[in-house]
Specification:
The protein has two helices and no strands. The relative contact order is 0.06. 84% of the residues lie in helices and 0% in strands.
Length: 69
């Protein structure tokens, strides 16, 4: 991850023309949005898994039969 950040930093610093740099930044923003959109389903799955585990452990710890979903 660190090497990827350094690569992007060097790429950014290598663009000296203002217009080209602005386009480069917009392109990187768009790429990041695409990545984020692809990650959302996995994040939701993981959040649901964590909530389910928490509910199960809470019920075990305090003797509840469960929560209604």
């Amino acid at each position: 991850m660190k090497s990827e950040a350094l690569k992007i930093q060097k790429e950014y610093e290598s663009v000296v023309d203002f217009e080209k740099k602005s386009k480069w930044v917009e392109k990187k923003k768009h790429q990041q949005l695409v990545i984020n959109d692809k990650l959302v389903p996995y994040i939701l799955i993981e959040e649901n898994r964590i909530q389910r585990i928490w509910r199960e452990e809470y019920c075990l710890r305090f003797g509840f039969s469960g929560f209604n979903d």
